């Protein structure tokens, strides 16, 4: 998946950032669970998207509107899970960033 999907590298970068922020801000166990679930949701949806793309390509090498729609829906699922993960990250980390900036500049 890492070799064939460019967006997986972006997800890995975001995962590294989220874990680094969690360690830096020492988030609690509930917040860790939410961050990990969000990360897993993105990678699971990316894996399913990749599987659907490979399956569609194996079924037909010629373009077909239904195959393209199924690929688009699978890619949309990845986008929805990534947006959800971003929202969870903002809800968890924004208060920590605000408090940190407040301490730095006051």
Automatic annotation (TrEMBL):
Q: Which InterPro entries match?
A: DAGK, DAGK_sf, UDPK
Q: Which residues bind a divalent metal cation?
A: 53
**What's a Pfam family this protein contains?**
DAGK_prokar
**Where in the cell?**
Cell membrane
Q: List, separated by semicolons, the cofactors it needs.
A: Mg(2+)
Could you confirm whether the keyword Metal-binding appears in this record?
Answer: yes
Top-rank taxon, per record: Bacteria
UniProt keywords (A-Z) are:
ATP-binding, Cell membrane, Kinase, Lipid biosynthesis, Lipid metabolism, Magnesium, Membrane, Metal-binding, Nucleotide-binding, Phospholipid biosynthesis, Phospholipid metabolism, Transferase, Transmembrane, Transmembrane helix
Q: Which GO terms describe its molecular function?
A: ATP binding; kinase activity; metal ion binding
Q: How is the cofactor bound?
A: Mn(2+), Zn(2+), Cd(2+) and Co(2+) support activity to lesser extents.
Q: Which residues bind substrate?
A: 46
Q: How does it sit in the membrane?
A: Multi-pass membrane protein
Biological process (GO), any one: phospholipid biosynthetic process
Q: Mainly localized where? A: membrane
Q: Cellular component terms, GO, for this chain's entry?
A: plasma membrane
Q: Where are the transmembrane segments?
A: 9-27, 33-52, 73-97
- List of catalytic residues: 46 (proton acceptor)
Q: Where does ATP bind?
A: 53, 71-72
Tell me which family the UniProt entry assigns to this protein.
Answer: Belongs to the bacterial diacylglycerol kinase family.
The entry's protein name is Diacylglycerol kinase (ATP)
């Amino acid at each position: 998946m890492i070799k064939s999907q460019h967006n997986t590298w972006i997800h890995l970068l975001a995962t590294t950032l989220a874990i680094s922020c969690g360690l830096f801000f020492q988030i609690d166990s509930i917040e860790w669970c939410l961050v990990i679930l969000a990360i897993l949701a993105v990678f699971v949806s990316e894996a399913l998207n990749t599987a659907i793309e490979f399956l569609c390509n194996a079924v037909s090498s010629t373009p077909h509107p239904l195959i393209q729609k199924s690929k688009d829906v699978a890619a949309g699922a990845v986008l929805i899970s990534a947006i959800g993960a971003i929202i969870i990250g903002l809800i968890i980390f924004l208060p920590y960033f605000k408090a940190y900036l407040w301490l730095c500049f006051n």
